[in-house]
Specification:
- The structure is a single chain.
- By secondary structure, the protein is α+β, with helices and mostly antiparallel strands.
- The chain has two domains: 3-217, 2-Layer Sandwich (Nucleotidyltransferase, domain 5); 238-462, ATPase, nucleotide binding domain (Nucleotidyltransferase, domain 5).
- It contains 16 helices and 24 strands.
- The protein has a seven-stranded mixed beta sheet with strand order 18-19-17-16-22-23-24, with helices on both faces.
- The longest helix is centred in the C-terminal third of the chain and has 23 residues, at 353-375.
- The radius of gyration is 22 Å and the shape is globular.
- The N and C termini lie far apart (59 Å).
- 49% of the residues are buried.
- Bound molecules: D-gluconic acid (GCO).
Length: 463
Amino acid sequence: MAVFLGIDIGTTAIKIGVIQSNQVLYASEHRLQTYGDDTVKYQKGHELLMTLSEAVLAIPNVFRQQVETISFSTAMHSLMPDDESKKIFLWSDFQAAIAIEAFKKTNEAPSFYEISGTPLHAMSPFAKILALRSEYPQDIHWYGIKELVLQYFTGKPLIDYSTASATGLFDIHKRQWSKAILTYLKIEEAQLGELVDPTQLVEALPEICQKFGFKTSVSIMAGASDGVLAAYASFYRTGRTASLTIGTSAAVRQVTRSAKLNYKKQNFCYYLNEHYYVCGAPSNNGGCILSWAAEQFGKESLDFFANLPDILAQTEIGAKNLRFWPFLNGERAPYWSNDIAGGFQDLTLQHQRKDMIRSIIEGLLLNVARLVKLVAPNEELSISGGFFQTAVLGELAADIFGSTCYYAVENEPIFGLYYLLEQPELPKEKAKQIFRVNQANYNKYQAISKKYFEEIDQLLAQK
Ligand SMILES: O=C(O)[C@H](O)[C@@H](O)[C@H](O)[C@H](O)CO
C-alpha cells in the first residue's frame, strides 16, 4: 500500500505524519518561532523552510524512500510579501486593524464578504494588503505559507482553492481570484499564487527528491488549510458534521453542502472541495490561553497539564464564583473586537491558585460555548486539537456545551489530507473517546453561563 507523507504547518509547530493503510508509521513535531509584538506577528520564511527541511530529513530513511505522495496543510490567512526578507505575517497579526475598520464602512464591504466568505477582519490577507501595500513595490508578489512551500517543492507558487478562500481575495462561488476585490486593491492576478484544486497532484522537483532521499518521482498534492482539514477529518472519522478545534486559536465549524453566509454574524465560509464548504466561527483565545496559564501558574508543579485532572477534581463547578474573561488576545467571533481584554472578575481572598486555574479553563470553554450555540446548537460535536489531549477537558467541554463530544486522534489536518487523497474505508467504531453530558453538571453550567454572558455584554456595552 502507498505511503503518504502529510505535513501540517500550524501557528506554533510543523507536524509530520507518515501514514499507510490508516496507520501512522512515524510522527514528529518541530517548533516554529514567531516574532513581533502585540500588534505585529510574523514568522521568517527562510527559517520556516529550514525547519521544514530538518523535519523531513528526520524521518527515518526506510519510510522516506517509500513515500509516494506528499501534501500540505497550512495555517490560514498568512501573507508573505515575496521580497528578500520573506516575512510571513500570521492570522494573529493586527497591523490591519484600523484599515479594515475603515473598509467596513464602505459600500463594498457587504459584497466583498459575500464573494469571499472571509470575515472582514485584520486577520485576512485582504486587510493586510490594504494596510501594507504602500510599504512595498507596486508589483510585489503577495504570497503566503502555501505558495512558499509549494514553490520550494514543485518550483511553482501554487495555492489551493481552500487556502485561497481564507484570503478574502478569492471568489468562492466562481473559484477564481475576485476581479472586483483585486481591482479595489489595485493588484493584478499575476501578483498572487497560481490556483489549483486541493487534490491536484504535481511532480516534486528532481532536486527535492534527491535532497530528501525520496524516490525519483513523488507527487505533491496541493492540500488545503488547517481549519478546513481538521473539520473534514473530524467529519470523515466520526460522521459528525459539526466540530470544534482548540489549537492555538479555536473554531467551531460545520461541513456544509453549499456556501452559508451571514454578513451580520460574519461567519467564515471556506471552500473544501467540489462537494463541501466549511462554515463557522473562530476565536483568538484557545490553547494559547492554556499555555499562558501553564507559564504563569505551572511553575511549582512539574507538569501543569498532567495535574489538571487533580485540579479539576479538587475544585467546584463555577470556581467559587470566580469568573475569567479569556480575551487576552482580543477576540474574533462573535464580538469581532480588538478593544476587549481579559481578566478575573470577583477575585477574593478565598480563591486559591487551583480556583484560578479552574476559572481560566471554564472561561475559555464558556466563551467557546457561545460559538457552539451560534454554529451548531444542540448538535453532537467532534473535537480536536492539542487542548483535548488532556481527556478530562473533553468531559468538561461536554458538560459546558451540553453536547456529546467525540474525540479521535485522527480528527487532525494530516488525516484530513490523507482522507482527501485516499478516501479510505474506516474501522466501524466511530471514535475512541465519547464524552457524554452529565445532566446535573450541565444544569449548573447553564446558570453560570447565563450570568457570564450578561456580564460580558454589559462590559462590551460600556466600551
Ligand atoms: O477555521 C479556523 O480555524 C479559523 O477560521 C482560522 O482563522 C484559524 O483560527 C487560524 O487559521 C489559525 O489557525
